[in-house]
Design goal:
Layout lengths: L1 H74 L14 E5 L2 E9 L4 E2 L7 H18 L4 H10 L12 H5 L26 H7 L3 E2 L8 E2 L5 H5 L7 H13 L6 H5 L14 E2 L4 E10 L2 E11 L6 E7 L10 E2 L6
Length: 330
Amino acid sequence: MIMGQGRRGEQRGIALISILLVVVIATVLSVSMIRHQNLIIHQVRNGLQMSQASQYALGGEELARQILWQDLADTGPVDYLTEKWAAPNMLFEFEDGEVNIQIIDLHSRLNINSLLAAGPVGQVSRARFAALLAVVGLDASYLDRLVDWIDADGAVNQMGAEDYEYLGLDRPYRAANQPMTEISELRLIVDMNAESFAALEPYLCALPTAGAPINVNTADAAVLQSLAPGLTPGLVDQLIGVRDGNGGFETVTEFLQSPYLAGLGVPEAGLGVQSAFFEVRVRARYLDRYGYLTSVIERNTATGVLRVVYRNVSRRIAVPEPELMETPNV
């Protein structure tokens, strides 16, 4: 009788241990499922927030398009730095977020692809690029190397470089032999280090139109100084002061008649007072997520039609102190 009771007690103990083991396994599985579910919820929420931030960034691009359209409608085709689009940083606030926009006139820079333009524009563009290299303190050989990079032939200029030089590098590649589509291609030029690129990048652009003129109303000091050998930093500073104080020049002729340019023989080729290409930099925030967008927009100066030429969502954008703007109603 006592032995039977002992066996039943052992069986009850084994059953209890089995039940506890099942409870432990169920608890572990439940905790694991809850953690996995929470992870999925966080991933979905983060994805939705990032998607919303990206949509805000696209909305910022559309706001910039409206601003540029309204500028042409209100002030005509002449562009200058005191117009609303040229504000250094515009801030638009929305529900649970905001959009920072900066619009940069790409005609304020030297167009690299103009080095291939035919006739006087190409000749003047090459001379201005050589002068810009001197202004920023870089070697003159970059001109020949850049021309060799974008021209269609394999002939090597005096200080240039073609496929032979590039294929001999540790990581070989060929010269593009076509116009540039993005200014970062400069880093592929032989001996173009980070310091040299940083010195040149603010003054250059890569536009699809080789003959795109420099807008004398928006060009900064270094670009203006490259227009003629006799333009000293002092003369350029005075010229910019008069230009910005008077709201810009209405025509290139008015610009060339400035007393600060007297006797310098600044060529008229490749200059203008209208702009068709703009770079739009957008930083959008939704809750604690950020979206970035850099776009190149072309505006038809006759019809006002705008089209997006280029988009880059990988570039992180640092913006200056914002100026709160009202959302345009166009």
